[in-house]
Structure formats: C-alpha cells, structure tokens
Specification:
Elements (H helix, E strand, L loop, with lengths): L2 H22 L32 H37 L1 H15 L3 H12 L3 H28 L2 H8 L4 H37 L11 H8 L8 H28 L10
Helix pairs in contact: 1-2, 1-9, 2-3, 2-5, 2-7, 3-5, 4-5, 5-7, 7-8, 7-9, 8-9
Amino acid sequence: MNRRLLLGLMLTGTLVLAALLSWVWTPYAFDAMAIDSRLQAPGARHWLGTDAYGRDVVSQLLVGARSSLAVGVAAVGLGLLLGGSLGLLAAARRGWVDQLTMRLADFTLAFPALLTAILLTAVRGPGMGNAVLAIAVLNVPVFARLARASAAGIWAQNYVLAARACGKNRWRITWEHILPNIAGVLIAQASSQFALALLAEAALSYLGLGVQAPQPSWGRMLSEAQSLLYQAPLLAVFPGVAIALAVLGLNLLGEGLRDRFAPPAQARSAW
C-alpha cells in the first residue's frame, strides 16, 4: 500500500468515524443554544468554543460530518448507478445508442458543474434532497463516459470474444465479464467524485440552498461565521479545515485506488 492511499484511508476513515460518532455521542446537543455562552473561545468546557448562538462548535462539526457524508454517499451512489448503467449500455449496444448517450453526456458536461447545481436547487427549492439530486445529475455523465470507455476496451479482449462464441448474450457478458473488470476504475473515480460532491454540498449550504437549519452543515457554518471574522475568526477556521482535510483525504484515496487498479505499465509511483 503506497503512502498516498494510506493517508487517504486515514483521513477518510476519520470523516466516517466522526459521522458515526455523532449518532451516539456529541459533547452537547448540536442545536442547544446558550446566549450567555455565545462566542466563547476554545476551553475546557467547549473544546473549540461556541458560535454566535452559544452552540458548541465540536457538536456542530460532528453532526456536520454526518450531513456531508450522507449527501456525498447518496449523490455519488446515484450518479454511479445511473451513469455506470448508461455507460455499460452504450458499450454493449454501440451504434445510435452509444452516440446518443455520449452526446447527452457531452451536453451535460458543457455546463459549469457548480452553477448547474445552484440552478437546479434554486428552481426546485433548498434542502438536502434537492442538493443530492443536483449533485447526482452532475455525476451521471462522468461515470457514463468512464464506464463506456473502460468497457469498450474490455469488449475487444479475446476472452470476451470467446464468451460470445460460446453463445453468451451481451447482457450476460456485461454482468459476468465487463462489470467485474471495470469495477476498480469506477470505485476509484467514485472516491474522487465524492470529494467534489462534498465541496458542492458545502457551497450549496454556504449559499443557503443545501442542508437547512437546524441540521448543521460545514458550508452553513462558514456562512454564519463570515460576519464574525473580526470577532471570532476561529469559527470560520474550524469548518474550513474540516472541509479541506475531508477533500484532501478523498482525493488521496481516489489517487491511491487509481494507482492500485491501474495496469503496472501505467501505474504512477507512490507519493
């Protein structure tokens, strides 16, 4: 295991553990307000201090990890399922099905991802569900193109030709031979897309279009801290660092998995 993959696993594991821990324990209730304790500095009672409403920052960060993880898993999972299926269909059928699928993917990718997500959530209304849908739509063409390109190379292999000569239909070959051979590439890409989904969720929440109050979100914590930068700058530092470390871990994990699943001749050296 190279160091890039190891560090990615450690940072991503910390994110997952924080999200799981928030279900069973937080230092305080994440929505408990105490106006007499507002804007306290980090100390023994509140490890990372309190916000403008007296809410404990540690509790907010832990529950915010849960929100980010939930949106990322749902959005990337939906994008992987739909996009991967379309890519496999295009590679199996070829012809007009392939051309139509790839042109639709090109059309979707022509629009800026974040602006498209903002547009979709603005039209459908703010909320976690609409944020998941908007981010998933952006992931579909990415996985469709990757699955189609990877599957097309597998279809030219001799063992696939032998399977066709034995009478297996295209769908059976796709399930038994194509999908297992491209699963590693899709998983590696899913990790990288997870990082982008986390950033998109934070941006949408920062703009008030993502996770809604009283559910904490790292992006909304940044938004609320913006007006208090001169009074309590650490309120912006903590969620910003959390987002940066989570995205770094997911990107390193994706790069490490990509190196691990790449052919030996194409694998990059460990970081």
